[in-house]
Give the backbone structure.
Amino acid sequence: MRTALCEAFGIDYPIFAFTPSEHVAAEVSKAGGLGVLGCVRFNDAEELDRALTWMDENTDGKPYGVDVVMPMKVPTEGTSTDLSAYIPAEHTEWVDKTLLSLGVPPLPEGEGREGVLGWLHSTARSHVDVALQHRPVLIANALGTPPNDVIEKAHEHGVKVAALAGAPKHAVSHVSNGVDIIVAQGYEAGGHTGEIASMVLQPDIVDAVGPDVPVLGAGGIGSGRQIAASLALGAQGVWTGSIWLGTSEYRNLNTHAGWETAFTRATSADTRRMKIYTGKPARLLKSKWTDAWEAEGSPAPLPMPLQNLLVSDAHNRINAAGDPDVVAMPVGQIVGRMNEVRPVAEVMADLIADFETTVKRLDAIAEG
């Protein structure tokens, strides 16, 4: 399973793993893939610096990447206190009322945290500055093309830049602005997605950007068979995310026992693509929380970053409550294959073995 990206990044397998957990990212890198740490959960530079220092010291010298979120629409600056003035009182009242009806208790006095500021453009820029003080080989932006000066700064440090695309025209725009790698993320993926399924999207983007631009297939990838399919569609590697939420190392970040029950019993039909998490379309696990937002009388989600600031405390309370029927978690349709909690190394080994078995089976078919 070697492509040109393996040589470019010094990895054994072209398996890129997005995760908010530095523990998961480190294990993926040590297993021969490229762990990519999602930075959006880090509210300040020192917090991210500590996480990347830990990765520097716990990846056996293997490469890793980081993922930032750089939304471009106003309001993008300021603190959550400043932005709270943009949140309608009726939205806050509805969230409080809904949590009460779902039996989600308030957090103990003094617990909780400020709204996630990583959705702000200014915070994302600080994430880039901190990351470049460490040794990432890739910076990915989850919301389109990064600003030109960010791309230039990354390139000055010898760091490649990737951007997610949900349509061929977006991929072409990324390339014209200097992005090195396109992540062709299909409708099936968890988190922010477009409206085109991977089987159609990936070859369309490969053809649109041409043979000199590497494309990573993303969305609905949780087995070696699916990796083989993505490479067959023209991708040079895969961008995976949801499957790492079901690893034992992820527990270092999220000890929400209810979440594990929720995803291990879910099927591929148990997700919803909604704007309630960040203000942009994102695929989430279906729960009583998502049902409430779809019910008659629920408010319309606010634009990014206001929606995340609106629901951040609610998500903290939901996670603390640990009720598997009331979860607020982005996950892709691949959740139907996440039937048990396993170590990262085991997941990686299964992906590779299944890929090799699939290729041998296809070779046999090709040989007649």
About this structure: Residues 72-80 have pLDDT under 50 and may be disordered. Residues 80-104+273-337 form one domain. The two ends are 23 Å apart (CA to CA). The chain has two domains: 4-71+120-253+338-366, 80-104+273-337.
